[in-house]
Design goal:
The chain is mainly alpha-helical. Helices cover 83% and strands 0% of the residues. The chain has 3 helices and no strands. The N and C termini lie far apart (71 Å).
Length: 111
């Protein structure tokens, strides 16, 4: 069984066995133009793919941030009902607790 190179050689041989030098060079030039066009199309497709990948990554980041924000707001509403109604907590303790929860949800560092 013939491999791809042998099949390609046989095909090219058949196309060029009766060619003169000028015809052969013209055939090579045509194939080179085809090759350049295919390279150009590949580059364009690669650029489209890269842009799509960047958009996807940005969308995932936005969705993550929105989810974190929603979680924090839900927690804040729930805790504000409990903490602000309880008079044993001072306002600075409440704000410190809220800040620590916010950092926990969004992945911030404690300072």
């Amino acid at each position: 069984m013939l491999d791809d190179n042998e099949l390609l050689f046989d095909e090219l041989y058949e196309k060029t066995k009766d060619c003169g030098r000028v015809q052969f060079i013209n055939l090579l030039m045509e194939k080179e133009r085809d090759n350049q066009e295919l390279k150009k199309q590949l580059d364009e497709l690669q650029a489209v793919y890269n842009n799509m990948f960047k958009c996807h990554c940005n969308r995932v980041q936005v969705e993550t941030l929105l989810s974190q924000q929603k979680e924090f707001i839900e927690w804040l509403v729930k805790m504000s009902k409990d903490l602000f109604q309880n008079e044993e907590y001072g306002s600075s303790a409440i704000y410190g607790y809220i800040l620590s929860k916010y950092k926990e949800i969004i992945g911030g560092k404690d300072e």
